Amino acid sequence: MLRMPLFSRVAAAACMIALVAPSADACTSFLLRSADNGFVYGRTMEFGLPLQSQLIVVPRKLDLKGTGPDGTAGAGLAWTTKYGATGANGLGLSILIDGMNEAGLAGGLLYLPGLAEFQAVAPADARNSIASYELLLYVLTSFANVAEVKAALPKIKVSRAPQAVFKAAVPLHMTLHDATGASIVVEYIGGELKIHDNPTGVLTNAPGFDWHIANLGNYLNLSAYDPKPLQIGSLTIAPPSTGSGAPGLPGDMSAPARFVRAFLYSRAAPVLPTSTESVGNAFHILNNFDIAPGIIRTEADSKAGGGVAGIETTEWSVVADTRTRRYYLRTYADSQSRMIDLTRADLDAKAIRVIPIDKPGAVLDLSR
Predict the structure, then answer these.
(1) Rounded to an integer, what distance in angstroms lies between the CA atom of residue 119 and that of residue 360?
(2) Are 193 and 154 in contact (CB under 8 A)?
(3) pLDDT in tens, the chain (368 residues)
(4) I need a labelling partner for 323 at 20 to 30 A (CA). Which of 8, 103, 223, 240 fits?
(5) How many Cα atoms are found within 13 Å in the side-chain-facing hemisphere of 64?
(6) Rounded CA gap, 124 and 322, in Å?
(7) Residues 6+ apart with CB under 8 A from 133
(8) Residue 239, Cβ neighbours under 10 Å: how many?
């Protein structure tokens, strides 16, 4: 079987791109339910400079090795993939930033700057550890559902291994959803693993998940329905237009604001007959979280670990249909969907398949 160290190409990637400061990330994710007992997960990816993402397909029965606590490739946990998976990588590396496996377990890594702190790992425990950026790849290739993940993660360590481009541990938390609709958020805070059940299905960035849930209490007045007219004697005061049920809905690009908006949009979304129909609905919701170039600008920060000045934009958006096992991706340059159907993909291949996504589609010219 092919043995592939996860980060053999880090040096080349480091020369290719320098990543932005930790604040330069505005990812938003949510979950939708359909009437056929399907669940659809949607997510955006924003960063201040291109992540050079590709679609990858990871086959079953592939031997992988994690990174050691000191950053040495292949010095961490060794495992053989049990489930085939697909998703988006970063920097051309053999990891998953976002994805879904053949059992319908789907999720992504989202930035958690200033808060994520991973586990201290002694040299003797190195072979039972992975780096933070390897967490989703390990989970999606090893487990079928949320319950299995909750049982397994306490048995391994997620170390503070530095990533070569970031020059530090990558501060991340993870959202996961399975084919039954079960959802969790995985965070490492103060060096301890915290697994939160997530009935909202929503996740953005910092602060941590508990803070976002508490903050929702400030927005219980929000509704998809217009308020009823107020009668004062002979005076009737009515809403000026439809769409008046959510005054005070935060519209800025911060993670707290996006969490509240994603919560409202996903709860208000109609339950469509099939998960396939819900895919289109998810993309329309994701459009509300597109970040136009220039509205978020980041400054260089030498203390941030590779931080540079940049303009943050939505690089790509993805939707995973956990019922049909179809994974869809759209890029900033091309809104046409790319799709990987895990029921038809070659999951018995001998190596990871890499699919470029940087070629924009042609414009349909209807002039004549």
Answers:
(1) 41
(2) yes
(3) 334 444 443 333 333 323 333 445 689 999 999 999 999 999 999 876 678 899 999 999 999 999 999 999 999 999 999 999 999 999 888 999 999 999 999 999 999 999 999 999 999 999 999 999 999 999 999 999 999 999 999 999 999 999 988 889 999 999 999 999 999 999 999 999 999 999 999 999 999 999 999 999 999 999 989 999 999 999 999 989 988 889 999 999 999 999 999 999 999 999 999 999 999 999 999 999 998 888 888 775 544 333 345 778 899 999 999 999 999 999 988 889 999 999 999 999 999 999 999 876 666 665 57
(4) 223
(5) 29
(6) 38
(7) 95, 109, 163, 170, 172
(8) 14
Tokens of 302: 């030498």
Which tokens go with 122? 């002694």
Tokens 């509205």, residue?
A: 295
Residue given tokens 């096992």 in the structure block: 325
